[in-house]
Amino acid sequence: MIRWCSYCQSYMGESAPLEDYSLTHAICQTCLDQGHADDETHVAVMQAVGGYYQRLREAVDTGMPLQASALVREGLDLGLKESDLAWGVLQPLLRRAGARWASGNLSVAREHLFSSTAMNMIDLLFSDMPALRERRQSQHPDILLVMAEDNFHSLGLRMAELGFCLKGYTTFTVMPGLPAKEVAALSESLQPRALGISVALAPQMRSVRETRGMIAKLPAARRPKLVVGGSAVRQGLAVPEAWDIEVVEDFDLAITGRSGTSM
Fold first, then answer.
1. Cα separation of 203 and 194, whole Å?
2. Averaged pLDDT, 175-181
3. Which of 72, 77, 70 lies closest to 89, judged by CA?
4. 3-state SS class at 263
5. Which of 21, 148, 187, 188 is 20 to 30 A from 43 via CA?
6. What's the DSSP call for residue 202?
7. Distance from C-alpha of 243 to C-alpha of 127, rounded to nearest angstrom
8. DSSP letter string over 226-249?
9. Could you give all domains of the chain from N- to C-terminal order, each with its CATH number?
10. Residue 166 · residue 86 · CB < 8 Å
11. Would you call 225 helix, strand, or coil by DSSP?
12. Would you say the C-alpha torsion 182, 186, 189, 195 has a positive or negative sign?
């Protein structure tokens, strides 16, 4: 379930059952410390946020067309921060769409429709925030984000790019997938602190293995930390410990800190 603070309207992470993407309201520690628990003026806002989220869930389930600009504006007008809109609203709805598609309860067309809306929402969040845009495609990035060769599922990496930029990191993102040799050359040129590789299918780990071998030859001062995430990892793909690669079920886990990962 998606935990949401009823008072400051911030995303609080997830709780069991994790496959249930409905909204549950709580109170964050900051609001509790400030004594907001006895303040009833937030009830109306809480109900409005709940209604907003529920309408989006129903739209995912029915395939109803959505206007990205209106969704972003409504969320911000409700007091949601851009980061909470991304991780507390958009991300769980994308997971719900993916789960429903995998179980045969959502057509490919409807899944693509919502994915397209989500991509437009990400673009709008970037366009509305000049400081955010300045962190993208940096020539001196903290994080280089790439897709493994033959991976064409770009939405997850776009979410990661947004999340890292919202956290204040500079990024350089390349889509679709690149051959390992080109990833290694790009990493040597840009010298990022971390290299994140998105893997959608198990065979794409071959590209990760090749990239790791090339990165390992770089001088220690120019060798980025390697992180692998994506749908293949979420589905249980194992990465040999000897590869010395950090594995996260989703790159957003690294961003929000729920995995203990720090870039």
1. 23
2. 89
3. 72
4. coil
5. 21
6. G
7. 38
8. EEEESHHHHTT----GGG--EE-S
9. 2-128 (no CATH), 134-256 (3.40.50.280)
10. yes
11. strand
12. negative
Long-range (24+ apart) CB contacts under 8 A made by 34-38 are: 36/7, 36/8, 37/7
Which residue type is seen at 90? Answer: L
DSSP code of 203? Answer: G
What are the start-end ranges of the H helices in 82-200?
82-84, 91-102, 108-128, 130-133, 155-166, 180-190
pLDDT 10s digits, 75-111: 888 888 887 787 778 877 777 777 777 788 778 787 7
- Residue 195 host element (H or E): strand 194-198
Task: Give the HSE-up count for residue 108: Cα atoms under 13 Å, Cβ half-sphere.
Answer: 0
Q: Identify the DSSP state of 199.
A: -
Pairing mode of beta strands 143-147, 171-174: parallel
34-60: pLDDT as tens digits: 666 556 666 666 778 888 888 888 887
Amino acid of residue 168? G
Q: Please tell me the distance from the alpha carbon of residue 167 to that of residue 126, in angstroms, as a whole number.
A: 13
Give the position of tokens 């984000």.
Answer: 145
In residues, how long is the chain? 263
Are 161 and 145 in contact by the 8 Å Cβ rule? The answer is yes
Round to whole Å and give the CA distance between 224 and 166: 21
Q: Which two tokens stand for residue 113?
A: 């429709």
pLDDT at 46: 73
Distance CA(87)–CA(255), nearest Å, equals 10
Phi, psi (deg, nearest 5) at residue 27: -135, 130
Work out the number of other CB atoms within 10 angstroms of the CB of residue 240: 9
